[in-house]
């Protein structure tokens, strides 16, 4: 598989598009104008405003009038900057919190006392002091990383080795851990001296953040439109790669043809339009109907113009599974997802389809989980809510 990243401007904002075998699989958008809310990854000195034991949560204010949900699950020990009383958490306590979910629809942002510092190879976490390895890394390499993690077993933080560690040198990983640990300790000490509502760590530009998080294997090019923002975007990406991802700097390419911009060259506006349509046609002539609601997203599979009928339904369902997973990733659909496949006759067909669907979902950096099939043959999937959907990003 050949993968490339495009960074340009579309619909009056920055956009990053990830292409796999020349097909767009992900979009990430920069903010449009003035910042309206807190962003994923930002760290604040917050103040507890409400405690709701009946739902196991609290509300923490991180700016004047901006309250976020904080789960009282007892998993993490927060860093307090001003503690009131001896109870674990009381109204008026001031503590360091990090945004782990952005505001989605009517739901407020979610913050946590578990501070995460994400690098290209490793996530350093303050709340869980264990050593973890990406589920996509197996065998001897997984054992090597677990052994490497033992060097940090007595530290005041935990580590999660990301998928990019597969081909990374041990010296690169150690260097990144040291850098992340230094940043963690600096923010904790700095935060103790700051006033309430201070922002201790701003989120990077969403497009730059996406560039950091993309799996680097098979990545062949990072193409940036040089004319965007009078060259500011290219310079920002170039500087980021030099300081944070020097191994990927040779992949950077400047696109300099103003008469035929990247948006036209790769038909990005057309890809965005298609990703917002309710109906998605497939090569077989069958199609998907994707309908988001407040509670969940429904994907209906229809045989449509497909000339191959009954005996080819399993084949159509597999094609639909592949395309449904691509659309889930492209549109960044999360939460509860229901897929209504074409009816299957045998239990073996159902079992094979569910297994196939789960394998396809595992290719996603934010993989969904197949929960099973109902008596009405509706397949249930859950996918973690982290960022806004494509539609919400375009309106945010």
TrEMBL record:
Pfam families: RNase_E_G (PF10150). The keyword rRNA processing does not apply. InterPro entries: NA-bd_OB-fold (IPR012340), RNA-bd_AU-1/RNase_E/G (IPR019307), RNase_E/G (IPR004659). GO terms for cellular component: cytoplasm. Its cofactor is Mg(2+). Residues 117-385 form the RNA-binding protein AU-1/Ribonuclease E/G domain. The keyword Membrane does not apply. Gene3D superfamilies: Nucleic acid-binding proteins. GO terms for molecular function: hydrolase activity; metal ion binding; RNA binding; RNA nuclease activity. Keywords: Hydrolase, Magnesium, Metal-binding, RNA-binding. GO terms for biological process: rRNA processing. This is Ribonuclease E/G. It comes from Coprococcus comes.
